[in-house]
């Protein structure tokens, strides 16, 4: 990994842009995912699926308090323990407490961005607990000691050849260019981990209120192993994940699958409705559900509710011309990147100005909005966030002055004309403005016309 | 010939960038409108739509500029001097049609919001107006070389105008078009994005330029001079012979002899 997620924004972007193998990896994967998605949505009445998916998510968000209460009571009725966490610290201490009580030493995890959001792995490891990621992509980046760089394809930043090298180095495996061979090696190792683990931890794609069920989408079956093999199962769910009925969850599963990977549905859809009951052949002895806020209610209160509709399919990321150039690590220490990440990372942050560059990391081309299965108007949310940032004074002083000067001259035609003439008199005045150097370093700039259109027209 | 009374009347919003950097594009737009039957009014007090400030997050500043736009164009439409406002830019028209709603969403701005709503349905991008209102199907344009078309993002995804420019280009017998790979990908301009994220913007632009090269076109046609400036800036710096040109220049170009002159610098 050449991008240091802890470096300042500009540096991260620069590092990413200088990495040719990163570009190759991103080009291959985003193109493949986008093409598959395009085929999968073309095969069905995708307009209808979008309308239905959006309606389901919207009604869930509008009815959030009631649905969460219903979810809680049904989970408890099913024998689960339900924990409410206001923030990352509360959530991690809840999980740690469960681990401590059960004298846990080994944890297996199914891929989950929400646990990345709260830094759960670090918290567990600091407390002497071994954590093994069991999604192949997550397993690879854990071996490489890197954070995920895409919400559904965490290892998208690596080429097959990079992974082969990593497996050779870390697992002593002979170099190979066959992904299946590497997958087989990982599977062998993970099988033992599943058997050894005391706790399985997953995120949650959908939480069904009417049945008290946690749903996890995977393609590798590791989700089912994590949720059923260890003695204790802990699901961490953002409070916005709740839906009313099983039918709704299944429709969203289809929407997520088609838009994420171009599948009709993912290979596995693991539904967990509580611990093993007497007479059950398998399942965990304990099931815990941690319902996490961590900025989500604030996001809903602040007219950014649309961002909470997201079903984390990653389609917006795969079509994003910015993400395709820089990848996920350039977005910094957040598991959420691409257009949706540039929106929710500042919304979930306690101090949004610490990630003030993210809403500006977009050309507002709108490709993301066109593919979103729940029709989130991402460019609009980015624009709103930009406005928030500048209102909070999180913009460079010089830029603020320049924009004020621009507005003042544009609302006075005489002033605008005078500026045009002045610029011509001084020659290439625009070139001398400090921020224009950022333009001219790589691009030519056309000369000012000797007469503006309006001047010429006025003379005729 | 229609008498002046019967002609559709359009106010040309030339846009600040065309006015300052590319007056010939404004002239070409005016000629096209007049040639295809509109009578053109050019309000002298016009400046900018406010988009640069809006996109950068400065809504107060953007509102000031947008109010000036409304002050200039709203009375002309209201009094019936013109039936339409036409601009040779997809993004400036998107600013008026789409983003003025956002800009004037506060209760305190209701009067401006109403003025904006009055103008929105009658504000057109040039090719949108030529095809949808004036019914132009083909032009007498000629170009001595191969063209390819780059759909600018706001035109394509905010205004959903794509068929109109493509129809004008393909319907004109004197033009030869080739396909642009990755045509719908953003060129990386994005207003202040191009300087705030200069390195990133350049990387996106270079990808566009590589695709233009791969298309084998002699010129890449588009409807916004902002994207054109960006793509030309990279083409020129990179020593490419291909140029980005505004669609109004192409549609007014005749017999090939204008080619060298009318292609944006």
Q: What can you see in these coordinates?
A:
- The complex is a heterodimer of chains A (460) and B (265).
- With 460 residues, chain A is α/β, with parallel strands linked by helices.
- Chain A folds into three domains: 19-296, 3-Layer(aba) Sandwich (Rossmann fold); 308-391, no CATH class; 397-459, no CATH class.
- In chain A, 52% of the residues lie in helices and 10% in strands.
- Chain A is built from 23 helices and ten strands.
- Chain A has a six-stranded parallel sheet with strand order 1-10-7-4-2-3, sandwiched between helices. A four-stranded mixed sheet of chain A has the order 8-5-6-9, with helices on both faces.
- In chain A, strand 5 (206-208) and strand 6 form a beta hairpin.
- In chain A, helix 2 (20-42) crosses helix 12 (246-261).
- The mean pLDDT of chain A is 95.
- Chain B is globular, with a radius of gyration of 18 Å.
- Chain B folds into two domains: 9-132, no CATH class; 138-262, 3-Layer(aba) Sandwich (Rossmann fold), CATH 3.40.50.
- The two termini of chain B are 35 Å apart.
- The longest helix of chain B has 20 residues, at 59-78.
- Chain B is built from 14 helices and eight strands.
- Chain B has helices at residues 16-21, 23-35, 51-55, 59-78, 90-103, 110-119, 126-133, 153-158, 163-170, 193-196, 198-215, 225-237, 247-252, 259-262; strands at 9-12, 39-41, 84-87, 123-125, 142-149, 174-177, 219-222, 243-246.
- Chains A and B meet through helix 1, helix 15, helix 17, helix 18 and helix 19 of A and helix 1, helix 2, helix 3, helix 4 and helix 8 of B.
Short structural description:
The complex is a heterodimer of chains A (460) and B (265). Chain A contains 23 helices and 10 strands. Chain A is α/β, with parallel strands linked by helices and 460 residues long.
Overall helicity of chain B:
40-55%
Give the radius of gyration of chain A. Answer: 25 Å
At the first level of CATH, what is the class of the largest domain in chain A? Answer: Alpha Beta
Query: Could you say which overall geometry of chain B the principal axes of the C-alpha atoms support?
Result: globular
């Amino acid at each position: 990994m050449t991008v240091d997620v802890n470096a300042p924004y500009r540096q991260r972007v620069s590092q990413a842009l200088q990495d040719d193998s990163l570009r190759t990896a991103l080009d291959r994967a985003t193109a493949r995912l986008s093409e598959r998605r395009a085929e999968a949505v073309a095969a069905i009445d995708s307009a209808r699926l979008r309308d239905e998916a959006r309606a389901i998510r919207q009604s869930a968000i509008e009815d959030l308090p009631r649905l969460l209460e219903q979810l809680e009571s049904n989970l408890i009725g099913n024998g689960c323990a339900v924990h409410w966490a206001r923030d990352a610290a509360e959530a991690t201490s809840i999980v740690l407490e469960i681990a401590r009580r059960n004298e846990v030493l080994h944890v297996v995890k199914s891929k989950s961005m929400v646990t990345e959001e709260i830094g759960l792995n670090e918290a567990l490891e600091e407390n002497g607990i071994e954590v093994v990621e069991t999604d192949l992509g997550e397993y690879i980046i854990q071996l490489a000691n890197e954070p995920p760089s895409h919400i559904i394809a965490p290892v998208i930043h690596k080429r097959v050849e990079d992974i082969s090298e990593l497996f050779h180095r870390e697992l002593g495996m002979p170099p190979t260019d066959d992904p299946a061979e590497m997958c087989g090696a990982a599977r062998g190792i993970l099988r033992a981990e599943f058997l050894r683990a005391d706790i399985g931890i997953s995120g949650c794609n959908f939480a069904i209120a009417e049945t008290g069920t946690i749903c996890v989408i995977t393609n590798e079956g590791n989700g089912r192993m994590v949720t059923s093999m260890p003695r204790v199962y802990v699901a961490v769910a953002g409070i916005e994940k709740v839906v009313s009925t099983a039918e709704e969850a299944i429709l969203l599963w289809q929407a997520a699958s088609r838009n994420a990977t171009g599948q009709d549905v993912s290979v596995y859809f693991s539904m967990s409705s509580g611990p093993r009951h007497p007479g059950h052949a398998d399942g965990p002895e304990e099931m815990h559900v941690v319902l996490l806020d961590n900025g989500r209610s604030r996001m809903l209160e602040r007219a950014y509710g649309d961002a909470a509709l997201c079903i984390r399919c990653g389609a917006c990321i795969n079509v994003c011309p910015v993400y395709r150039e820089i990848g996920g690590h350039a977005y910094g220490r957040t598991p959420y990147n691409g257009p949706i990440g540039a929106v929710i990372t500042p919304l979930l942050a306690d101090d949004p100005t610490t990630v003030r560059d993210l809403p500006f990391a977009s050309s507002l081309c709108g490709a993301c909005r066109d593919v979103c299965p729940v029709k989130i108007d991402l460019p609009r949310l980015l624009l709103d966030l930009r406005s928030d940032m500048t209102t909070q004074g999180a913009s460079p002083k010089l830029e603020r002055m320049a924009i004020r000067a621009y507005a003042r001259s544009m609302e006075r035609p005489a002033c605008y004309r005078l500026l045009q003439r002045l610029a011509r008199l001084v020659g290439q005045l625009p070139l001398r403005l400090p921020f224009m150097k950022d333009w001219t370093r790589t691009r030519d700039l056309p000369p000012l016309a000797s007469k503006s259109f309006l001047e010429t027209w006025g003379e005729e | 010939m229609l008498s002046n009374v019967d002609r559709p009347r359009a106010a040309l919003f030339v846009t600040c960038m065309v006015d300052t950097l590319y007056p010939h594009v404004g002239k070409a737009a005016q000629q096209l409108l007049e040639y295809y039957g509109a009578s053109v009014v050019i309000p002298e007090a016009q400046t900018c739509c406010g988009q640069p400030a809006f996109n950068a997050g400065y809504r107060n500043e953007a509102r000031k500029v947008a109010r000036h736009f409304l002050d200039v164009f709203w009375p002309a439409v209201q009094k019936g001097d013109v039936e339409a406002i036409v601009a040779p830019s997809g993004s400036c028209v998107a600013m008026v049609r789409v983003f003025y709603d956002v800009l004037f969403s506060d209760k305190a701005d209701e009067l401006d919001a109403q003025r904006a709503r009055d103008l929105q349905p009658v504000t057109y991008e040039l090719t949108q107006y030529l095809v949808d209102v004036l019914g132009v199907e083909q032009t007498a344009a000629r170009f001595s070389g191969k063209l390819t078309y780059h759909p600018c993002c706001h035109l394509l995804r905010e205004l959903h105008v794509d068929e109109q420019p493509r129809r004008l280009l393909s319907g004109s017998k004197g033009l030869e078009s080739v396909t642009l790979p990755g045509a719908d990908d953003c060129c990386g301009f994005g207003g202040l994005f191009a300087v705030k994220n200069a390195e990133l913007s350049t990387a996106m632009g270079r990808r566009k330029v590589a695709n233009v090269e791969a298309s084998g076109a002699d010129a890449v046609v588009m409807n916004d001079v902002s994207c054109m400036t960006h793509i030309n800036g990279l083409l020129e710096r990179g020593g490419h012979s291909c140029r980005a040109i505004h669609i109004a220049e192409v549609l007014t170009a005749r017999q090939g002899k204008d080619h060298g002159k009318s292609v944006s610098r």
